[in-house]
Amino acid sequence: MSRIRDLRNEELTSAAIRAVHRHGYAQVTMTDIAQEANASAASINYYFGTKEKLMEATMRRLLGLLRRAALERLQGAQGPRARLEALVAANFDDRLFVPAQCSLWVQFWSNAPYSTSLARLHRINRARVQSHLQAELRHLVPGAVETVTATLQAYMDGVWLEAAQSGICDAQATRREAAVVLGRLVV
Amino acid sequence: MSRIRDLRNEELTSAAIRAVHRHGYAQVTMTDIAQEANASAASINYYFGTKEKLMEATMRRLLGLLRRAALERLQGAQGPRARLEALVAANFDDRLFVPAQCSLWVQFWSNAPYSTSLARLHRINRARVQSHLQAELRHLVPGAVETVTATLQAYMDGVWLEAAQSGICDAQATRREAAVVLGRLVV
DNA sequence: GTAAATCTTGTATGCTCATACAAGATTTCT
DNA sequence: AGAAATCTTGTATGAGCATACAAGATTTAC
Question: Are the beta carbons of A158 and B155 separated by less than 8 Å?
Answer without folding.
Answer: yes
